[in-house]
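anyone seen this seq b4? input:
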Amino acid sequence: MTGATAMPKEKPALVEIIVISFVILLLTVGTYSRNSVWNSQIDLQLDVVKKSPHKARPYTNLASAYAGAGMYDKALEASQKAIQLDPKAAYAYYNMGIAYQKLGDLDKAIGMVKKALDNDPELDMAHYTLGGIYLEQRRYEEAVEEFRSILKLFPYFPNIHHLLGVVYAGQRKFDQALEEFENELKVDRYHTLAHLNLGQIYWYEFKNREKALYHLRAALMINPLLPARNQVRALVRMIEGAS
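predicted toks r here
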């Protein structure tokens, strides 16, 4: 009876770490590094704007630099100026979408990214961004559609299969989640989060001890700074001790 009552406590750990994985992806995939490089970019682009105040592109580049430094309100202002100068400036709309996403206004973010695509249907990264926003909103089917559209053009695009795996895990479609995480490892065999999520799903959902240990140990080995490392190591010890 003790083992039976312990099982419900294991399930939340699966969801918890998959959520952690998604948060990490939001921080590391397609986001900007806040460092001195971006500060120098801001200075550079401000100088370009002064020299070409009636062109949209310098304001668009300035918006990208502001976003890179985490100055999202200023990124919005610069993007709006670019759009005033060129209402068809697709990348300016895209920058606004990124800024609104980071500010937490996801509906406005979606609207801006869609406007970017209206003005430039070949702005492929917009589909990646839309998929991520839909995933944040748990609009899983729409997220899948956007991620699949990327794969049609770029079958080996990094992280897309992993994001699809997170979507399917969120829907509790664990067979499909496993397939996508495994596909991600075909693109990048050192993808820490794919190993981490594979290990959890193989154990919690399928009780496959061998595969669970393989992937969890791989995640720990690949990334010594793995978030929740102690939790993952405790899980490995628990599985090792399971009969």
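The chain is about 80% helix and 0% strand. Confidence is low (pLDDT under 50) at residues 1-10, 26-34. kinda curious what u guys think
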